[in-house]
Structures
1.
Amino acid sequence: MQHGQVNNGAHSRRNSNHLSDNQIDEALRCWAQRTGLAQNDLAALQALPFTCRTVERDGFIVREGEQPTSCSLILSGSAFRQKVVHNGARQIISFHFACEFIDLQSCLLGVNDHGVQALGPCTLAVVPKVALLEVVQKRPSLALAMWFDTLVEGAIFREWVVNVGRRNARARIAHLLCELALRQSPETREAPEGTIVRLPLTQEHIADATGLTAVHTNRTIQTLRKEGLISLSLGRLVIHDWKALRSIGDFNDAYLHRQASRPQRG
Amino acid sequence: MQHGQVNNGAHSRRNSNHLSDNQIDEALRCWAQRTGLAQNDLAALQALPFTCRTVERDGFIVREGEQPTSCSLILSGSAFRQKVVHNGARQIISFHFACEFIDLQSCLLGVNDHGVQALGPCTLAVVPKVALLEVVQKRPSLALAMWFDTLVEGAIFREWVVNVGRRNARARIAHLLCELALRQSPETREAPEGTIVRLPLTQEHIADATGLTAVHTNRTIQTLRKEGLISLSLGRLVIHDWKALRSIGDFNDAYLHRQASRPQRG
DNA sequence: CGAGCATTTGAGTCTCCTCAACCCGGGTGG
DNA sequence: CCACCCGGGTTGAGGAGACTCAAATGCTCG
């Protein structure tokens, strides 16, 4: 059925907006680099029929309980995964930034077991899951890249279980901030000390991500601030003492698998 | 480079023991069914050079920090994933039972970010990761099955984040027991009420899985027992009132994706 | 200037933790 | 055959971290 390679040229695939086309290509390139994808596989991705979409703050990208039909790649902005429990409390499960696919699980899982919302205003590139699945089925190395991405995501979930399960408020928050700072500063493996990290988080988001209440989160953040470890005000995080914060949060970046020895593929 | 199909016949692949050969084939068949794998892909899996290994209670299957060279499939017994935090406390991240691969992440991630130990005595089928990777790269539908397995695992991790993050002791334990009971009773989607579930868990395991202390876990289990909801003594769990326990634990089995609409493949 | 949201502060409470002792059944060795 | 030990379970008392409820502050935006 499927003949030859991907398709013909990336320039005919989307409607009009060349600006967003560039953005999509760039985001895919970034994703491909992180997952160690080869050039021709990247091209196959770029040839997919992405469409752009913008979501305002707190807008839903994925709704719990629905059956997904597409996958979304973040072009700009950030988003968070969340689940709501019986009494109405919310648990945030992960944060996602530019150049990340948010819902690859849509490809193979029948129903969304959680929701995803935009943290701030967010632009997305959306591709029908059938299109993505099709190319993945043709290209094993692409399938491995997807699998790899999902594995890293799983590793982060595991660390989050540990974070909310076995650390106190101070450590939980420190750990979260370490992770976010590191993931936001792409290439630098070490110590995002002193750099300003754009994080449109409210303290309530932090509370929901760490399994704490907003009030207690507030008090805990204040002590971190008073100790001169961090600055954290609306939308901006600065870590003044990376080593101290890392130690408080019991943070070890191995679980992020930022330079996993990904075996040859493609 | 890679010519033709898998290899030649499954009967020449392992040393001697026909009994364990059967066990391996059976476990793989079971896994293939769960992931919706087609017959020829299953055959390719069965042709891999698995070797058997037994691990005694609490023995390590995967060690944190090491570089994995193989993947393990549980033939009998059960295992748990765990991470240790700075102060020495342990968090259990998941439990695994027969016919499950425990460390598929070994295939693509460079270093183990957590450990896996046998819960009780455990027999494993071990395959070199390079062999697994090779066949996966040849067979896209197999890659998708691996990916699917990892996605479901990730969904379970997410629910665990919610469990330890946003539920009280009573609900956490109820939720955990619901999950374990359901996963242990394979085909039945509904209500493992009254059936005996073999679970070689100590209360300390339950505590470490739910982010509680052993003492508090003990007290909480006692109230569940006194209310006639469960029986739980060394190695045996019986759920007497499934609906009640499910309600207490805020348990919704959707996240297990037991009958996910897996798209056509293979 | 007021509305609305995020943050901050206070006071009282409760869940869950800590430390410690004790019980109990099974296995081992003298 | 009994004494002992050991791991898991149980119980008690006290304490602390985190929660709840409530109100006040500050900030941004219309």
2.
Amino acid sequence: MSADKLLETIFAGDLRELMVISYIVLGNNAVTTRYIERRFRMPVQAWSALYAIDKFPGIRAKEIRHLFPRPQNTISRAVSLLEARGFIVQNPSDSDGREKRLVATEAGTAVLADLIEVSRQRQEELLGPLSTEERAVFFELARKIATGPDLLRSAVMRS
Amino acid sequence: MSADKLLETIFAGDLRELMVISYIVLGNNAVTTRYIERRFRMPVQAWSALYAIDKFPGIRAKEIRHLFPRPQNTISRAVSLLEARGFIVQNPSDSDGREKRLVATEAGTAVLADLIEVSRQRQEELLGPLSTEERAVFFELARKIATGPDLLRSAVMRS
DNA sequence: GCCATTTCAATCCAAATGGATCAATGTCGC
DNA sequence: GCGACATTGATCCATTTGGATTGAAATGGC
């Protein structure tokens, strides 16, 4: 059976919304993750962290998790990598000796600019099939889902 | 800074669409993957494969990749696991000795019914913030993105 | 028909992942 | 101000991941 036919059937089932989201993300990751790892020698979570640090100078590691919900040790390692590359510095917090305030360096901001530019282009490509209005609607609906109460903690899948 | 404030800022940047999609998926995966691994002792890709096999009896391993774009060895392992559990059988193809036609067993169909039900409930929860109309619009736009020409192969991120 | 090339799926193995634990620091009850 | 508990971030280590290779089978060129 052709790929199109297979997809059509899957996207007609009860789980269509989960399926289509999963498909977009798996497909896009295959392209994006590989490219970023090759070009920037950096796992995706490292550049996500750099993005967060640049946007919010002085952010703490645990706050990055609010933006990119990944395991804690993943963030910890990403931050170590960014420091080792000279893209950020970790300043011990004045008010709490456990915390480190993370700040991007000039080198970090510079590499991030390239990352953002290629990501923006990729975003345009990905959203190419949508008109400007559709794109705005899509974002607004996705934002509703993202900020809904049950995204991070589920009643039906409670552990 | 509060989690809400952080998100609001990220969702206002140039990469807002990528950010919101990534946030939904990372957040949902943290919940879903863990639950399914605990309850069904099965990685997500195994139940995805089972879903595909049940929907398309006789499907070949490589075709599953058209539905769930994951590395080839991942599918191969998932199929082995499903066979070891007695959830599918692999019938050598008549027309091509390399291929195996995959078919779900009764046990496979039974466990899949539970998986589908809990996933459907999770889907309702996740999409709770949307009205019925919004949900239909969201799906239609996501489907457009998913079936667009540049999802699986990128010009700006070509490797 | 024979050999080179392609395709399907399994396997190898270095690297990444993430749950669990740990050490250091802070907070709270009294 | 002392002991119990909580929180931050680093590290440990068994498991998983995925790019690369392999082996087996099919296809194509001649």
